[in-house]
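Mods, move this if it's the wrong board.
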Amino acid sequence: MQTTQIAVVGAGIAGLGVGLELVERGFEVTIFERDEVGRGASWAAAGMLAPTAEVTFEEEALLRLGQKSLAMYPDFIARLEEASGMDVDYRDEGTLMVALDRDDAEELQRVHDYHRELGLEVDKLSADEARELEPGLVPNLHSALYIRTDHQVDPRRMTRAMAKAFERAGGTLHEHTAIARVECGERVEAVVTDAGERIACETLLVAAGAWTRGLEGIPRELLPRVRPVRGQMLSIDLGEPPLCERVIRAPDAYLVPKSDGRLIVGATSEEMGFDPQLTAGGVFELLRGAWETLPGIYDQHLLDMWTGFRPVTLDNLPVLGPSELDGLWFATGHGRNGILLTAVTAECLAEAIATGHTPDALQGFTPARLAR
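Not the wrong board. Structure tokens:
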């Protein structure tokens, strides 16, 4: 019978991040992935590290967690790039939030008022000031907010780097290996693959994203209510010179330039279950929103289109920590913030598993809140 100290279900950015931290602490870790590494929400994401730009009303707890994670990112990325020998395209030019007309400007002002109420560092720009930063913006732009503290990363590069670093450090990674069921009694005992292999484990970390509730064998009441929210996205040739250098958040699309020459445009938010199909309407709205903001995309080559499934909980907060079943842990439900929260998820959850003590940063995000 095979054994491992810690089994992880899911080789997305959350599972790889925690797994890598645990291996570096000396634990024996085996990760099981139903598909290829990082081919779920991690692969579909744009990679914005933007707690300020992303903050919405009544989400101060999530903002604080995102800010902590962003503060951890420079060191996290430096260690990852050294361990993997790979560049993950970490960039710090900031985010422009733009208003195209008067109605947009009124909404942007409400957001800016909320930023100031929270004490966030945001600059209000005139149209001319915004176009000095990004000359490709539409000439009749109304106004903008500039968030210098927002960063970005390439999540596809980062997942590949994390997988390489994980295996280099001694971790075991099984791709195309779905977990058919979990065996548990008074505590977690083992996982069984779809090929019938049984692997005994002391600890099980479920990092299966939108597929969390599909795991068999775990009592249903212990599984967080995580559902898939479909996002349609596309990429366009960024051009030379590039159409933009900063992340641009417009009313109907966001635009994220990458150093490899892609301009990522996203994203819809649709309650469509696991339907992976692109729609004409979704792609049209993304292109329209991007073109109204950055007209130069009109003649650029369309490179790719795809969908992804954000793992979203009922309260829109991630589920990070131990369950009521001994040995069962969760890192799921990150919603639209999976890439942003990678650093804090990896380091704090690994610390909790290693020491049995949940760090203060994760208080309020553990599965215990869902039992109330």
